[in-house]
Amino acid sequence: MRLFDRLWIIFAIDSVATSVWHQSPNADELRGQYLEALCHLQPWTEIRSEADRPMVTFSNTRAVADFIGREAWNPADTDHNRHLFPSSQQANLVRLVEQAFTMISRVSDDLTELIDLTIGELFLARKEGHGGGSISSAVGLIWLNPGAKWDPWTTGENIVHEWIHNMLFLADMVDPVFSASYLKLGEKSSHVTSAILHRKRPFDRSYHSAAVAAGLVFLRDTAGDTQNADRLVAPALRTVKGLKDRQDLLTQSGVDLLEEIEAFLWTRDSSRIIDLLAGRAIHQGL
Amino acid sequence: MGICDGSPECSTVQDPSEGSKSDMNDAEREKLENDLEYIRRVRRDMDRIAGALERYVAWHRDHPEAAAVFKMFLHSEEDEE
């Protein structure tokens, strides 16, 4: 599954940086030049970063403006700055994120390293009824709204969840998954049952849901939470089947990735994912 | 093909050579250098990749309408996506 393949991810971010800056970054510069390329390519938003790991932020005016402009958020979500976490909560939230990364590292240090390499900003902000989200116009940024019941494991799982969306955006940037636009994919005739919400959803969202479900199966299996992993498998396989019935909406790359997702869901071969994350298993589609 | 075309708008962007550099340890750096060397050796058709990247960006730049982007949210714990 290329979304977890260290070599594919490095290939993709190096391709983005090299395409934008006309020079190939060395290892020390790769993360910085990739994230600066994303800023350059997405001038309608803002993505900040630290040298080696995602920057945890509590305010991002331009990202919020883009969320509102593209109707991911409502203008009322920011009334009286209600989206901002009070400063009294921020230290605890930073600690929660740090603990979440410790949990992710217990599953795979390599996974943490790849998240560090590809995500510039973890933007923490409140929005009623939502725990966070992803938008294709803000590649490199993850928005999270940790709830009162979120523990380090839940937070880590949700970071990985949103990171998988980011990796699918990255795939779409360098080797598109979908053969049709988001407008076409959103039409009712293109809807497929989602692996997670279990109801008909736009094709692209159901595709993402299958990839996220597979990623969470890996995460939970590796952490020993097989019971909660089991719950995801059958719905995800049903979604894969629905997606395969509409291969006209996928590129060959999208078909190949779907087959990788399906193969993992059948085999649950997490040791292969561990090898991919470490760069020890070479993906044939590089 | 290049996305930074030297236009005034482009020049406002930070020079990547001045960008933040990692302080990864020697083993991590060596591994990443080896991986970069490998992928650059096997990578084919940068023009096709750059074309895909340009189309992705152009789509998001030229289509500000809400339905033209992918967006997905984590909902409540019982209704997560």
Concise summary:
The complex is a heterodimer of chains A (286) and B (81). Chain A is α/β, with parallel strands linked by helices.
What sort of overall outline of chain B do the alpha carbons produce when their principal axes are compared?
flat
Q: Which strand order do you get reading across the main beta sheet of chain A? A: 1-2-4-3
- Classify the beta-strand content of chain B into a percent band: under 5%
Structural class of chain A: alpha/beta
What does this structure look like?
The complex is a heterodimer of chains A (286) and B (81). With 286 residues, chain A is α/β, with parallel strands linked by helices. Chain A is 56% helix and 7% strand. Chain A contains 11 helices and 6 strands. In chain A, the strands form 2 sheets. Chain A has a 4-stranded mixed sheet with strand order 1-2-4-3, covered by helices on one side. Chain A has a two-stranded antiparallel sheet with strand order 5-6. In chain A, strand 5 and strand 6 form a beta hairpin. Chain A starts with 5 loop residues before the first helix and ends in an 8-residue tail after the last helix. The model of chain A has no long low-confidence stretch (mean pLDDT 94). Chain B is flat and about 45 Å long. The two termini of chain B are 37 Å apart. The N terminus of chain B is likely disordered. At the A-B interface, helix 1, helix 2, strand 3, helix 6 and helix 8 of A face helix 2, helix 3 and strand 1 of B.
List the helices and strands and how they pair.
The complex is a heterodimer of chains A (286) and B (81).
Chain A: H1 6-21, H2 30-41, E1 55-57, H3 61-69, H4 87-107, H5 109-118, E2 121-124, E3 132-135, E4 141-144, H6 152-174, H7 182-185, E5 192-193, E6 200-201, H8 203-223, H9 226-244, H10 252-267, H11 270-278
Parallel strand pairs in A: 1-2, 2-4
Antiparallel strand pairs in A: 3-4, 5-6
Chain B: H1 8-11, H2 26-42, H3 46-62, E1 71-74
Descriptors for this entry?
heterodimer; A: 286 residues; alpha/beta; 2 domains; two-stranded antiparallel ribbon; 11 helices; 6 strands; 56% helix; globular; B: 81 residues; mainly alpha; 47% helix; disordered N terminus
